[in-house]
Amino acid sequence: MPGPSDMLDPMEEGARDRIEGVLLAAACGDALGVPYEFGSAPLAPSEQPGMIGGGLGPYAPGEWSDDTQMAVVIARVAAGRGLWDGAALDDIVDGWVEWLDEGATDVGTQTRHVLRAVAAPDAGSAERVRAAARDLHRRTGRTAGNGSLMRTALVALAFLDDPAALTVQARTISELTHRDPLAGDACVIWCHAIRLAVLESTVPDLSALVAELPPERRDPVGRLDRSCRAASAGRVRTQRLCGRGPPGGVVRDLPPRGGRVADRRLADRRCSRG
């Protein structure tokens, strides 16, 4: 199946570079940020973060977290068969379950809970996980964590040529583990931001991308809209990029991702973990 770069004009080397930048910056930033998650290691304002390992894993120096590990599974499925159908979703879930069973260094509590609904890889595993996510949301009402946002970039790259499908699949893949609509909203907005950054080499206005949500979600997403506007205006505190603040959900963690997401140089400057 054609990859994201096959959709681009042969002369669009810059876009190919930005596709690679999305992947490399996310992985490198993740490895740079994990040592400091939830204050695992001290980092003074005058210090630069380093890939020192530790964190919640503990992780080896330079090792990326569960966020990137789960994104790699999505990338493999996207490269092998695309992300269009239910079989692809089953393959994603099966890959996550195998990763978990093989001894994942760390995994979020919510994600672990829903993946345990699948005893072994099998047809229909995506629907079983979705059912577990729905049940968890029904019982707790607290499933707007940032886990699905952390791994959603690969969905954007798989649908560079189809923004309508991107909107649908960003939410669908988010809902495999995170049923709260806010998590899906954030994934839709962020995927469209990545798409624009890759194709147009622009800094997307996240607040404008709220229009990509269904009309019925534009009022409930008010908190996210305000956060996006603050990000676009440059009013997001830098410390959030390095995981220094208290743990938060998807509303807090989407805005810091605004910016030139497709530039490889982000791997040297940003340390977003979430």
List keywords for this structure.
274 residues, mainly alpha, 0% strand, globular
Please give the CATH class: Mainly Alpha
pLDDT under 50 segments (min length 5)?
A: 236-248, 258-274
CATH architecture title:
Orthogonal Bundle
Name the helicity range.
40-55%
Number of helices: 13
One letter per element, helices H and strands E, the order comes to HHHHHHHHHHHHH
Q: What structural category characterises the helix and strand content? A: mainly alpha
Distance between the termini: 32 Å
Topology, element by element:
Elements: H1 13-33, H2 66-81, H3 86-101, H4 109-115, H5 125-140, H6 147-150, H7 153-158, H8 163-174, H9 181-200, H10 215-218, H11 222-232, H12 250-253, H13 266-269
Helix pairs in contact: 1-9, 2-3, 3-5, 4-5, 8-9
Could you characterize the architecture of this molecule?
The chain has one domain: ADP-ribosylglycohydrolase fold, CATH 1.10.4080. The protein has helices at residues 13-33, 66-81, 86-101, 109-115, 125-140, 147-150, 153-158, 163-174, 181-200, 215-218, 222-232, 250-253, 266-269. Mean pLDDT is 81; it is low at 236-248 and 258-274. The chain contains 13 helices and no strands. The longest helix has 21 residues, at 13-33. The chain is 51% helix and 0% strand. Helix 4 (109-115) packs across helix 5. It is an all-alpha fold and 274 residues long.
Provide a quick synopsis of the model:
The protein is mostly helical. It has helices spanning 13-33, 66-81, 86-101, 109-115, 125-140, 147-150, 153-158, 163-174, 181-200, 215-218, 222-232, 250-253, 266-269.
